[in-house]
Amino acid sequence: MNRFTDKVAVVTGAAQGIGAATAHRLAEEGATVAVLDLDADRALATAQEITAKGGSARAYGCDVADQDDVESVFTKAAADFDTVHVLVNNAGITRDGLFFKMPRNDWDAVLAVNLTSAFTCAQAAQTYMVGQRYGKIVSLSSRSALGNRGQANYAAAKAGIQGLTATLAIELGPYGINVNAVAPGYIATAMTAATAERVGSSAEEHQRLAAERTPLRRVGRPEEVASVVAFLASEDASYVSGQTLYINGGAR
Ligand code: NAD
Predict the structure, then answer these.
(1) CB of 111 closer than 6 A to ligand 1?
(2) Is the residue at 202 inside a domain?
(3) Which residue of 121, 137, 208, 233 is 20 to 30 Å from 13, comparing CA positions?
(4) 3-state secondary structure of 236
(5) 201 lies in a domain?
(6) Could you tell me if the CB of 64 is within 6 A of ligand 1?
C-alpha cells in the first residue's frame, strides 16, 4: 500500500513506542514524516532508521507542552516540507497516583502533555490544512478515558481528547479535514514497562495479567495501533470523522 505518497505527516512523541511505529508505518506507505519528540537524540535515531529503510523523515526536538516550541517547530517543518497533511497527536506521559494524594503538578503535567498539546498542535496544523482544504488529525486517547484507578489525571486528559476530537471534526470538517482518535488498551511499550516497575512487577508479569483480562488473551503491539492510525489518516477512512476507535483486544 502506498496511501501517503506526496503527503507530509507530523507525528509527536515519535522517538519510541506507538509514535515510532506510526512514523515507520506512514513512511513505509510513502509519507514524508516529521518525527517530533522531547528527546531530540532518540527522534534523530528514529528518523535515521526510517531513511535507512528508504523512507523520508526528519527529526525535530520539540516539547509539545510548550506552545512557543510547538509553533516554531511547525513553522520549521512546514518550511522544510511546504505544508502539513497529517497530524498524529501521540506524545504522552503518565504520573499515576491515587486521587486523594495526587500532587497538582502531576495533574498539570499530564493534562499539558496529553491534552493541551493536542489543542496546540492541531491549531498549528490547521492553518496549513484549512488553506489546502485537506487534512487528517488523529489523536491518542486511551481505554483509561473510561476511568482507571490511579489515573485521574491521565483519564481526564484522554477523555478530553475524545471531546476535542468530536468538536474539531465539526469545526474543521467544512474544510475537508477529518479528525479522529484511537483509544488503545494495553500496548507493550516503555510506558507500560514503567507502570509495571512502579507497582513492583516485571514487565512480563504485568503483561501476563493484562493478557488474562483481555478477550484476545494477549496485549497489543505498537504496530497494531500504528496500522489503525494509518487507516484513519488515509483516504480509506475518507468519510470517518469525529470518532474514537478502541484498540483493546475485545475488552469492554
Ligand atoms: P512511550 O512512553 O513509549 O512514548 C511516548 C513518547 O512521547 C516518548 O518518546 C517521549 O519522549 C515523548 N514525549 C513525552 N513527553 C513529551 C513532550 N512533552 N513533548 C514531546 N514528546 C514527548 O509511550 P507509548 O506507550 O508509545 O504511548 C504513546 C501514546 O499512546 C501516548 O499518548 C499514550 O498515552 C497512548 N497510549 C498508550 C497505551 C499503552 O498501553 N502503551 C495505551 C493507551 C494510550
Answers:
(1) no
(2) no
(3) 208
(4) helix
(5) no
(6) yes
